[in-house]
Write a structure and sequence with these properties.
single chain, 3 helices, about 15% helix, globular
Length: about 130
């Protein structure tokens, strides 16, 4: 079933809202992982992904997350960029070990504030504790 979707984070209550940024690993990218698994074709490009972790319990052990990747052919991505048209994508969803997921990136940063209200604050340098 095709429907419009925004690639954006969301939880049941939205107690914490924020942003994320990541830098691809040079060799071990999420795209390479999905291609090696046969989930996307050689000419497909991942244009978005989502990672979800529910409550940690006996049913879903710690360390496993649900990953959804949204992808399209490189040519359709190029055409959508030129024309500014809405891109039609396919999606595949799978469980992955959290450490393996983070291993697909060189750097990964997530920041959130209560209800997204306190994005802009005056903050001292953090004190590192053990």
């Amino acid at each position: 079933m095709t429907r419009e979707k925004k690639v954006a984070a969301g939880t049941q209550y939205g107690d914490w809202k924020g942003t994320a940024q990541a830098d691809n690993h040079d060799d071990l990218t999420l795209t390479k992982f999905a291609r090696d698994k046969g989930w996307i074709a050689a000419d497909d490009v991942i244009v978005g992904w989502e990672i979800y972790s529910g409550e940690i319990s006996r049913v879903r052990p710690a360390g496993l997350v649900l990953v959804t990747v949204h992808f399209a052919s490189a040519s359709s991505v190029g055409e959508a960029r030129k024309s500014r048209a809405k891109l039609s994508v396919q999606s595949v969803c799978f469980e992955m070990d959290l450490v393996e997921f983070f291993g697909k990136f060189k750097r990964f940063s997530v920041a959130a504030s209560q209800s997204g209200e306190f994005e802009d604050v005056l903050a001292d340098d953090p004190v590192h504790v053990k």
